[in-house]
Amino acid sequence: MITDTAQWKIVIFELQGEEYGIEVSRVQSIERMLPLTRVPGAPRPDIAGVMNLRGKITPVIDLRLCLGVEAPPYDRQTRILVVVGNDGVIGLIVDRANDLVDITEREIEEIPTAHEDETYGFFQGVVKKDDRMITLLETDQVLQR
Amino acid sequence: MAQSNYLQVFIDEGREHVQNMNNHLLELEKNPTTIPIIEEVFRSAHTLKGMAAAMEFQDLATLTHAMENVLDVLRNETVRATSKMFDHVFDAVDVVEEMIDDIAEGGNGSKDIDPYLVQLKTLTSVGEEETAVTNGETQSFSYDEFEQTVLDQSVEQGYIPYEITITLDEATLLKAARVHMAFNVLGDHGEVIKASPPVEDLEEENFEHTFTIAFISKSRIEELEETLYNVSEIASVHIEAITDRHIHRKGTPQQEEVNDTESFTGKKETKRTIKVNVERLDMLMNLFEEWIVDRGRLQRTAHELQNQALTETVERMSRISTDLQAVILNMRMMPVENVFNRFPRMVRKVSKDLGKKIKLEIEGEKTELDRSIIDEIGDPLVHLLRNSIDHGIELPGDRMAIGKNDEGTVRLSAYHSGNHVYIQVSDDGAGIDKEKLVKKAMNQRIIAEEEAKTLTDAEKYQLLFSSGFSTAEEITDVSGRGVGLDVVRRTFESLGGVVSVNSEPGKGSVFSIQLPLTLSIIEVLLVQLENETYGIPISAITETAIISETDIHKTHNQEVIEFRGNVIPLLFLHDVLQGKNVRNSQSEPFHSVIVVQKGDRYAGLVVDGFIGHHEVVLKSLGYFLQDVFAISGATVIGDGEVALIIDTNALVK
Questions:
Q1: Does residue B643 belong to the interface with chain A, where contact is any CB pair within 8 Å?
Q2: Which residues carry this modification: Phosphohistidine (chain B) (predicted)?
Q3: What interface predicted TM-score (ipTM) does this complex get?
């Protein structure tokens, strides 16, 4: 989907002090925490519930649970990234959403293999930008049921 | 490309034309000589051809063109359509439908159409041979009002109207040129009023060898004949003067035919309508849903503030929004005929394949249902109809042997009652042997022997829909019924429908489906479960009650209560939805119970408290959260939060 010279715009968010990124075209909006309704018997354990996103019932995944990082309680910084997946719109809970950066495809490096666990497929690669290390999320993999 | 703008229109209209051809071909099969019906089919094929060519779907254009030729033979020659002919044309219609489906899915509709072209071609050549036999006669023209006026006036002015049938030599190479020359020489003698095939087709050589024209002239027949025979490669000329009597004799049946056309297409009243994209309707619906939520909020605020003027305004608003709701829902309603009219084709095919004689009767096709439901019921209905034909109706010989008419009847009917629409599929076939059914279910270990003894008749028939039962191959000989019927039941239940069966051995069976009018707005009882709120559809609720702890009894590890003379099981929703066993941890003296019903089974659902009766907009949880146990959807309640709607059907077993 990206050509060699393509510029990527990446939304940067934070999970447990680490920075992650999602392609901005996949992000519909960034919401402050909204009231969630638990869904009993939901198909995956990381589904935090459903929210009312301007009249649309939208499922919300706690990305922290999904990626296996620690999930502190929601606070004023907690955000829901509303992303567009193949099967509809889904919210992703993150600790905070910070920034928007430009990168080129050439800057993307492969994930260090030491990282290879069950979440390996969830990432596209890492980007070193100035002093920051940004892990790029493979949204479709994360959203696959 | 600009054509993508038209693609959706092309697909929609294409499908309409396919449906139209199917309907009229079926009609035509019953009355093979009715010209207006042929013309109706022809028009659809012709329009499709034009559309396909414009959109550059070459195969589709070629195929529809071939179909057009067959219909043209039917229309112009006096060939009677044969059953084989219908089979071929129906096949072609099927292919056209496949092509349109392919285009709808982003393909270009290309397909190997050669076998179909060959089939269709043989049909037109049959037409040719028949023509030779009927060649001596003039072809009947029908004249519209305008043409008749022209003919009448020409007679008044001393012209003689003729019908001239010209047959070109079979070996003619440039047919169009001959036509041109014929028209040319005739031009010196008078004027051509009408041609069949139409002039454009003649110019494009879209005809075999014969064409007919209506011609007014002051010349005599012999003169005209002589002139025409001077044109080379004209094999024969037949000229007949149309007398006044002649015109009217032809005019009168034409009038009747026009009426015919109207009655079978049902287009008598012309209503002014516009087509609206479904997405726009959905958008309107969504906006309206939010409005309803806000209305609820406003109502509550008005109630709290106790301000007279505000309360009155809110009340008026509520009334208007109720009307508005009715209007919007109405816009989403479609007659079931949109689904029903695909069935005659299917029934024709299935009964042919099985060698059975079947009459399909359709009733109440104007009954309206929400579009979202209409979209879903097609496949399960096909299944039920197939089932009736396949396993219900006996072979003609068997029917005769037991003194029945050799033609079986399958009736599909729809009607309205209260807030529901009922659809029935009934047949006058062999019926279902319920005892055999029970025996098979026992062999399949679907029910235990003791259980089998207590079953009511309705419950015995319900066995057909149990999932283990239906998939098992070897039981298909219980008149085969049951195969895949669990899927049918599930589909209808997911739409909030209820399916039941009744049968009388030897006389036939009836499958009835009760469906809600709409899925979008339902009435629920909101209930409290600790700090969570759930909605239970009112339609499933029989009664609500507060029961005392002492009313609860235990049988076989199951808590039950006595309710109106029945012992019904209690279900603590805490267990189901929160995974907590509240019965042990806390013991309240009283419990709020909602008695729900599914078919003839009851259950009592225990909750912490009732909040109240609300009209809510049912929304889906989306693709991501499909098939969540006991949850059928969600809704936004007054304070903007989401409440889940409980699917009581899943809870009552």
A1: yes
A2: 46
A3: 0.85
